[in-house]
Amino acid sequence: MSTPDEAYIKRLVPLDFGSAKSVPDSFVWPQASDEVHSGDVLTVPVIDLTNPNAPQLITEACKHGKMKAVRSPGRITGYGIAHIQSLFSTTMWHEGFTIVGSAIDHARLLWPSDYQGFCDTIDDYQKQMKALAEQLMRILFKALSISVEELNWLDDPTNSSGCSLSLQLNSYPPCPEPSRTLGLAPHTDTSIVTILQAKTSGLQVFKDGVGWILVEPEPDALFVNLGDFSRILSNGRFISVLHRVVVKPIQRYSMAYFFRPPTDFVASPLLSKDLGPGEVPRYRSVTVKEYLDLKGKHLEKALSFIEN
Q: What is the per-residue pLDDT for 74?
């Protein structure tokens, strides 16, 4: 018996993006034409990790629900649709390559005699992204008074604890009717942190009372987005930002690195030593696996199912 994801993939009709003269009905998102707040671009704090005040600046940025840019110093694996695609009935204008661990098996098929350079580059990039994600999490956990000694999956060189570490290479092909479709549907990430690199605009975040706001790329910087597990662990102090990707008449690429704890990890505001006697946890304790199941069924309403 096929899984929901496999059943959905069988229903997909491949589209030759390069020859498309219009957007097929299966790709039409009515909300793609939602008005973007005119003349407003999200001001993203740029934080240099070499700054002695970086931990305080990062913590403050997280509280305001803004994405932040960290100054850059100097089957899951394989080609296919976006991982969140199976949660939606409308198709997204997107294709990509997901890498978990080594990309060598797939790369060898693409370039039988010249795959090693690609694999070495990807392996080095993932190693650096993992180190950066762990550095950021240590800062966040310290701000929340969460003891990192209790988290055996943090700073695990071989990932023997089973964290979900994945690199998504995104392609948003040129679109003949950008106002009729979306590159990625509105969603929050089911990670602790997501680290994004993009050189062209297309990312938008939703701000209550305002609407969708464009996020302009920051040269020589990486965007860092907090996922739902940061929100749970912080008891709502840190915000997992609702975001989407719009498409353009031109090609857009991006790379996103996701760090999620092992499926048996119990995420709970009670891990924080900052909860006072009179402070009630906003969210009940939940394993990563249980929350992922809730997210698959209820999308952005998943958090409401674990609220106290």
A: 37
Residues (pLDDT < 70) of the chain are 1-14, 35, 37-44, 63-76, 276-277
pLDDT in tens, 195-234: 999 999 999 999 888 899 999 888 788 999 999 999 999 9
- Tens of pLDDT, residues 18-57: 888 999 999 999 888 776 755 556 666 777 777 777 777 7
**Under a CB-based contact definition with an 8 Å cutoff, are residues 198 and 157 in contact?**
no
Q: How far apart are CA 301 and CA 291, in angstroms?
A: 11
Asked whether the beta carbons of 100 and 174 are under 8 A apart, the reply is: no
The torsion defined by the Cα of 39, 42, 43 and 49, in degrees rounded to 10, comes to -150
The residue type of 223 is F
Angstrom distance (rounded) from CA 291 to CA 308: 15
Give the C-alpha separation, 153 to 131, whole Å: 13
Q: Which residues are catalytic?
A: 252
Can you say how many angstroms the Cα of residue 97 is from the centroid of all Cα atoms in its chain?
A: 15
Please state the pTM of the whole predicted model: 0.86
Report CA 183 to chain centroid distance, whole Å. 14
Strand partners, 258: 166, 194
Place of tokens 């055996």: 152
How far is 211 from 93, CA to CA, in rounded Å? 22
Q: What separation in angstroms does the CA of 43 have from each of 176, 216, 245, 304?
A: 30, 9, 17, 29
- Pair of tokens at residue 8: 């959905």
Q: Specify the residue for token string 């939703």.
A: 206
Residues 6+ apart with CB under 8 A from 124: none
Pairwise CA distance, residues 230 & 240, whole Å: 7
From the CB of residue 77, how many other CB atoms can be counted at a distance below 10 Å? 18
Location of structure tokens 């102090």:
237
Task: Give me the helices (H) in 144-244, please.
Answer: 228-233
Residues 97, 83: contact at Cβ < 8 Å? no
